[in-house]
Amino acid sequence: MGLESMKRVLVITGATGAGKTTVSNYLEEKYDMPKVITHTTRAPRPGETDDVDYHFETKSSMEQLHLLEKVEYDHHQYGSSYEALDQAWEKNSLITIVLDTKGAQTYYEQLGEKAVIIFLTVSHSKSLVSRLTRRGDQISALEQRIKSEEYQRDLQLPKSLNNVAHLIVNDHWEETKEKLDKLVASLSNEVK
Ligand SMILES: Nc1ncnc2c1ncn2[C@@H]1O[C@H](COP(=O)(O)OP(=O)(O)OP(=O)(O)O)[C@@H](O)[C@H]1O
Ligand SMILES: Nc1nc2c(ncn2[C@@H]2O[C@H](COP(=O)(O)O)[C@@H](O)[C@H]2O)c(=O)[nH]1
Predict the structure, then answer these.
(1) What is the pTM of this model?
(2) Strands of the chain, DSSP E
(3) Which of 1, 33, 41, 140 is the most buried (most CB within 10 A)?
(4) Where is the signal peptide (predicted)?
């Protein structure tokens, strides 16, 4: 099989607080899967670093970028570039990206089976708010976010990804890791 056909991007999507970044970090640490760093106009949260967690942009620098897709989420812009995808694929054929559900749909439309969609959810949406509070999100930002239509939308898997996405209920981290390990094992066989 040629290198091109072995490439996969694991698109980790779901509601805010569902654990997308945690999953992406786990896959990077355990399987050396680079994370595609995306761009945003929102301000860094405490502990976030420019060019590591995001490329933090102004509205005008965002306009200069060559993006595969771009969305508005809770009044801020987010987008991912072709260059960042290729840079990550230069390091490994299995890479990850963290996107909202609209971005996940676009990735599937654009990349087909190269995009492996993982939809993360939790059994009780109340636990999302407590997780974000524990993460240290500012209360005012958190209140604004959970009022946003994007927050409500991302609690559900979009219909177009119904028979496509791998669904993981991330209530218990140990169980989530087992599910991820199984998925990675099956993907690694697929691309061998
Ligand atoms: N299974 C779990 N049980 C308890 N806490 C968890 C679990 N998974 C992740 N967390 C914690 O929940 C918080 C939110 O996780 P994370 O930042 O990964 O979410 P996210 O989906 O990337 O959120 P956002 O879209 O807002 O960036 C973090 O503090 C993380 O450590
Ligand atoms: N469609 C895209 N969604 C993205 C991108 N980068 C991040 N995200 C998603 O936005 C929300 C909010 O992120 P946060 O870091 O402010 O909590 C979340 O669902 C991310 O997954 C992107 O380039 N395109």
Answers:
(1) 0.96
(2) 8-14, 39-40, 55-56, 67-73, 76-81, 94-98, 115-121, 166-169
(3) 33
(4) none
